[in-house]
Amino acid sequence: MEATRRHLEAAHSVYVVCHIIPDGDAIGSLLGLGWALRQLGKRCTMACADPVPPRFDFLAGTQEVVSDPPGDEEIIVAVDSSDTERLGSLYDALVFQSRPVINIDHHVTNIRFGTVNCVQPLPSTAEIIFSLTQELGVALDKRIAAPLLTGLVADTRCFRTGNVTSQQLHTAIALMDAGASMVEITENVFSRKPVAAICLWGRALINVRTRGRIMWTEIDQDAQRECAASPDSGTGLVSFLASTQGVDIALVFRETPDGDIEVSMRAGPGWDVSGAALRLGGGGHPRAAGCTLPGDMSAARERALLEIQTVLREQAGA
Predict the structure, then answer these.
(1) Which residue, 229, 242, 243, is CA-closest to 201?
(2) How confident is the model over 86-111, as pLDDT tens digits?
């Protein structure tokens, strides 16, 4: 944290980027840090390779998020990204090697790709940003607090994940006292879904299959086109499947436009899918992880299921 603070205090311009198909923690951390740096008088570019999902439009600054690569900014800050592949088209090895890179993240599978790595195993990256604003002496206001609380709420599924302690509740109180509305955030993040998402969920739920205590579904490009779905329309589906009685691990397989298969994994209490995701080239948390696999749907499905079955056997034996 100290090295991160020193770099940011010394910089006049900062490029902040979050991961592709951004979720609440990615967007919340991006906007929260962006507004904090601007409050300190820094020139700050906020970037993401993919569009900001409409459900986050209630947050100030979403319209300012660009998909441009780094320009002449002195420092690059990557938030909520466990590796550089997660930055998508905005990652360029030569550009990232040309200046300091600060890696701020909370994933246990983070590969420490930064010049400075501010990686802490907290429930959300937004909490690390919150602590950083305190280190920088930033006065919290609603523009900063609302996205940070969004990140915390989104990644803890409204404080329901097993890694939540009183620390997260104290952080939430501080952000609410600074102007963030818990009602507004939970309503937008969890309660409002576009028609395209409802359509896609319906198609996906018809395709649900089980193998022992593993449950999964598959979403191909045809389903996404017919529902006019965006890449984030399936958000929350894998957690919904994981809540099924008798299910230990749930997966959602989604075909991307280039033919790869994105795999989202969720585990019930006592199980850890992060190792399986890491061995498949991805990463994440013990109970929430993912990866992207080449090849067709059936090959990706069997490869992932084999890895998950191995995890279940190993962990059951342990």
Answers:
(1) 229
(2) 999 999 999 999 999 999 999 988 99
Pair (81, 155) in one structural domain:
yes
Q: Tell which residue, 247, 216, 248, 260, has the closest CA to residue 234.
A: 216
Model's pTM, two decimal places? 0.86
Which range of residues forms the domain containing residue 99? 2-190
What b/e readout covers 204-218, taking b as 16+ CB neighbours within 10 angstroms?
Answer: beeeeeeeebbbbbb
The pLDDT tens digits of the residues spanning 247-262 come to 999 999 999 998 999 9
Nearest Cα to Cα of residue 20 among 107, 86, 76, 111: 86
Q: In 3D, which of 217, 201, 204 has the Cα closest to residue 304?
A: 217
Residue 50, helix vs strand vs coil? coil
Query: What is the end-to-end Cα distance of the chain in Å, rounded?
Result: 35
Give me the CATH number covering residue 255. Answer: 3.10.310.30
How far apart, in whole angstroms, are the C-alpha atoms of residue 37 and residue 46?
11
- Last residue of a domain, which of 143, 172, 190? 190
3: exposed, middle or buried (Cβ count in 10 Å: 0-12, 13-18, 19+): middle
